[in-house]
Amino acid sequence: MASALQAAYDARVRSGDIRPDPAQAAALQPLLRLEAELAGDEPEGGILAMLRRRHPEPIRGVYLVGPVGRGKSMLMDLFYEAVGAEKKRRTHFHVFMGEIHRLIDAWRKGDRAARKTRFGQHKGDDPIPPVADVVARDARLLCFDEFQVTDIADAMILGRLFEALFARGVTLVATSNRLPDELYKNGINRQLFLPFIDLLKRKVDVVPIAGPHDYRLDRLRAAGVWFSPDDPDNRRQTAALWRDMLGPEEEDGETLEVLGRKVHFPHAAGGLLRASFESLCSVALGPNDYVAVAERFHTIFLEGVPRLTPDRREEARRFVILIDALYEARTRLIVRAEAEPTLLYPEGDGAFEFERTASRLQEMRSESWLQDR
After folding, report:
1. Is residue 91 predicted with pLDDT exceeding 90?
2. Distance, C-alpha 261 to centroid of its chain
3. Selecting from 3.30.1920, 3.40.50, 2.60.40, 1.10.20, what CATH number does the domain 215-372 have?
4. pLDDT tens digits, residue range 237-268?
5. For 337-361, how does the pLDDT look when each residue is reduced to its tens digit (9 = 90+)?
6. Domain ranges of the chain
7. Which superfamily does 4-208 belong to?
8. d(CA 272, CA 274)
């Protein structure tokens, strides 16, 4: 049977939407294998089908890993659209884990009647089996974009959760910037997370896609990353660049939990964040918040940066801390501001210290900085 995935990829190449890329073509092969195996796994009628539904066999998934901008999400999206699985779901991994925590909370807080209504019949108080049942009931194929683990609450449940999902026949496809062995690197109690890494490597083909061409970088090179002054023309340009960088993604928003507090960002999708200066620097955020932002997002659009004056020294101080965090994380930063970096805080209390921030901002708009991400 002809491959719908191969046909879709070839059509994108012929149309010029994507250029021929040997790294992408190589990474496509495991997805073609999975497409064929999923097509052959669709149950038919009869006793054999009933047994397969009760004792499903998971199909080996695919884990696409490589730097930003190499086409991982594009390949996964083509696969998702092409594959004929009856029950499938594509989402960002952090969105999925947020739902898992809410399901666990609902199980723990529900009485017997509420649990039965939402989760079905289950004995005991362990939330993982009923939560896995809910997930597997809705999707035999899970496609996750931006697979990463930085939260200890996620890390501590992933092993048991995915062991239960795989036992229910769920197949996993994921994109990530990190190899499985680098997930939750240097995390608290990481030794408890290592069994999940071993499980993951047994259940998926780890497929590198690290060609030399960064397609997102092409867009940033063409448009630039510093837009000043903050006038209607530059607002239109940054809005268009944001839409271009998003592609088919939707702004699903993101909520970060930092030291027990929740910080919500409505304009986020995967590793992309669009935020205003006011929302980051005119509110009571601190170093831990900015580090969390830098760890979570690889590309940030920062809009509405004003000229700073001594009466806004507190906002200037937060801005300095924010830029330090983004600089250390090697974040790609696109800025719409009233002035060039050296003119943002030219005089007043703290202006001398701001010179280092201006220097970092100049470096972060350079070709070498963009290339190094």
Report:
1. no
2. 21
3. 3.40.50
4. 999 999 888 876 778 888 888 877 888 999 99
5. 999 999 998 887 777 778 889 999 9
6. 4-208, 215-372
7. P-loop containing nucleotide triphosphate hydrolases (3.40.50.300)
8. 7
